Amino acid sequence: MKIFVYLFFSLFLSCLSFADQGITEDQILIGMHTDLSGPASMIGKQSVDGVNMRIDEFNQAGGAHGRTIKFIVEDHQYTVPRAVQAANKLLRKDKIGFMLGSLGTPMNNAVMSDQLSMNIPSLFPLTAARSMFEPYDRLKFTSGSTYYDQIRTGLKYLIENNNRKSVCVLYEDTDFGQEIVDAVDDQLAAMNMTLVESASAKPTDTDFTSQIKKLYNAGCDLVAMGTIVRTTILPFMKAKEINWTDVDFVTTSASYYTVVAEQPNGVMNGLYCLNSVVFPYYDTANEIEKKWWDKFKSIYATDPNTGAIYGYIFADIVVEAIKRAGKDLTVDSFVEAMETLKDYEDPLKLGSVTFNSDQRQGSNISYFFQVQNERFEVISGPINY
Considering the entire predicted model, what is its pTM? Predict the structure, then answer.
């Protein structure tokens, strides 16, 4: 009898040891570390709302195969040390099974290795950095064009169409900023051009006088920006303040947020920007988009920004893969389900993604925008370099 009991518990413990963390018979634990109280909180907060909205729909419809989703969020205040703490809690205390939509390039880079070593997939981090899917790892999935793709595409377009000849770069001194520098160097090399000047800044900087004067004095007529929202707004405004008009500034999806375009008195008019999809404005939205917008506003008492739409779309892809994975959900079956997504279109019909055993970037196309009358207007797209 003792031998039987021993064998039973040995088998039981063995089964537990092979069970994937964060997946039980009736629940799936998904985590996110993001900015809820720091400089990018306007993005982070609404991305959480977007994810919650889609997860609530999923749970209220009964979930899938007997399981619902529990979503756990930690605030990293857009700092690396807090991101490491937040991820450690999610991974080891909360014991999540999947990480979804975590915000920021340096924050994700700081925790990625540890996360992957625990067999926790990285799903659609809210950053378009190449490191979110390169080097290849079966657990890393990202949705759209990278910052690298976007800047190379924007430079090529403006050099060829606006006859720009003196290219410079303004970038945050972070992993994110370095990707922009790499893109500028590679695109200029491909076009047999050289960089005229560069200037860097900290993410917390609020005065860009020295950087803008440095680039102005160098004779730049095209400035690639490795900046995010506030660090895009302030130097662009400084350039206008010194009446520097014979220049184009081009930035990435890291600044494709309505708060950038809608700065008062049209101060951001003229800024160029790239993003992987075209997000709607309510007055020009179709019926599907308006219905979603109205529902979001009825729940959260505010208009959605692009963070909310990203969150909703990313959560929808995850929900679809969970459904396809079937009753015997594991990390392996989830990854295999993700690899069946081909031209999968989000519920808002804003874009589609494709994954397979070799492809972890859902799409690499970009749309090219310019701020006109305090709105992002499409200039061209879809395009690529």
Answer: 0.88
